[in-house]
Design goal:
With about 120 residues, this protein is mainly alpha-helical. About 60% of the residues lie in helices and about 5% in strands. It has a two-stranded antiparallel sheet.
């Protein structure tokens, strides 16, 4: 099985087991032809860490990234600052949930609903 990245000049073979950094199966940075100054092993480690996250951890990391923070940055802040950031994260999650619900409701209105009128 191979994956072709949009804009990439070649496909990446998918290994069934875990690939080791530097092997041909790591492919992520190698397929792009360059690593943008980062070592291939760093890119591999970053991708591996992201893949191992739970969906909730990914959401939190993405929201922190939107705020320009990392978990390490958050841990270095004072407890008051951490609480303020946590409140902002909660607000962002609520906004995302409301947007998703509105999108779902809009989709339901477009498609309509069937009602059984036979009694």
């Amino acid at each position: 099985m191979t994956i072709t990245l949009i804009g990439a000049s070649r496909s990446i073979p998918l290994a069934t087991g875990a690939a080791k950094p530097g092997s041909s199966a790591t492919g992520f940075a190698d397929a792009l032809g360059k690593t943008g100054g980062a070592k291939a092993t760093d890119v591999y480690q970053e991708l591996d860490d992201y893949v191992k996250m739970t969906p909730a951890q990914r959401m939190r990391a993405d929201l922190l990234k939107k705020l320009g923070l990392t978990e390490e940055d958050l841990a270095a802040k004072s407890p008051e600052e951490q609480q303020a950031i946590q409140a902002k994260l909660t607000e962002l999650i609520q906004q995302q949930m409301q947007q998703a619900q509105a999108k779902q409701e809009a989709g339901a209105k477009k498609t309509g609903q069937w009602v059984d009128t036979v009694a």
